[in-house]
Design goal:
alpha/beta
């Protein structure tokens, strides 16, 4: 079976990798396949995704990357198993089975993984997988800038969906007069309303702050014109302080993922709206 393994620490990676290899699976990892592999590659198709989150010292960026992989996997309809340390606080991932187990308890961990893989086999067609043809699959080339932008927007959308958002895709995705997409929280269509989202890649920008400022000004005008509740500029760089813009906030993906770990989406949006209103 082809398994994509994503993890937040070397001990977690080595342990789960060892268990999977003992069972004859083909294991690939995001660092090996390249950025956004699940969204862009067609030469290697995993049967399932296993995310191991046991690291006490994992960085926000690494945790964000794992959540993005999970989101894309769900969007593609792939089975996902989340392994985590007992008591670890993580975003609520609807439909994703979570196993809380001590990393030192190899037997229990192996049993849970076996049950997950057996369930997949029982619900899969009998045709053989692409395992033999993909063992030597080449490592992907760097993702082109335009494709990286699509991956980033898709990843942000999946992260919000995992947190409970209902996405509204733009009917004019290439128009400069429309946000990338919008969303609302079911049950809060009236008291919160619609949030407009613009996704920006700034990692290669020479003046990221200026880029975000212009994007925020443009999105702000759309928010005010459409009577939306809030505008969010979500970017892939480090947290950057941007001058306040009416009804619009700028936030990095790592910040957004971290906030969703500590609060539900409704609380995050209320806090962001307060920041936008009071110019924080």
């Amino acid at each position: 079976m082809n398994i994509l393994l994503t993890s937040d620490s070397t001990p977690a990676r080595d342990l789960v990798h060892s268990i999977l290899i003992d069972r004859g699976n083909v294991i690939r990892e995001p660092d090996e396949l390249g950025a956004g592999a699940l969204a862009t590659r067609s030469d290697w198709v995993p049967d399932a995704v296993i995310a191991a989150m046991f690291g006490d010292q994992s960085t926000p960026a690494r945790r964000e990357a794992i959540l993005v992989e999970i989101g894309i996997a769900i969007g593609r309809g792939l089975p996902v198993l989340l392994l985590a340390a007992p008591g670890q606080v993580l975003p609520s991932l609807a439909g994703v089975p979570r196993v809380s187990v001590d990393i030192d308890d190899r037997n229990t961990l192996a049993l849970k993984i076996d049950l997950f893989l057996q369930a997949i086999l029982q619900n899969s067609p009998s045709e053989p997988t692409l395992q033999s043809a993909t063992v030597g699959a080449p490592i992907s080339a760097p993702v082109q800038p335009f494709k990286q932008g699509l991956i980033l927007e898709e990843s942000v959308g999946h992260l919000l969906k995992l947190a409970g958002a209902q996405l509204i895709l733009s009917d004019k995705p290439n128009s400069k007069d429309h946000a990338g997409f919008a969303f609302y929280i079911p049950g809060h269509e009236i008291d919160i309303g619609v949030v407009l989202v613009e996704v920006k890649s700034i990692v290669n920008s020479k003046d990221a702050q200026n880029l975000l400022r212009h994007a925020a000004n443009h999105l702000s005008s759309q928010v005010l014109r459409n009577g939306a509740a809030l505008g969010m500029i979500v970017h892939d760089g480090k947290p950057i302080k941007v001058h306040s813009t009416p009804m619009t906030v700028s936030i990095s993906m790592s910040e957004l993922a971290a906030e969703l770990e500590n609060a539900d989406l409704l609380q995050v949006i209320k806090l962001s709206r307060n920041r936008a209103v009071h110019g924080m």
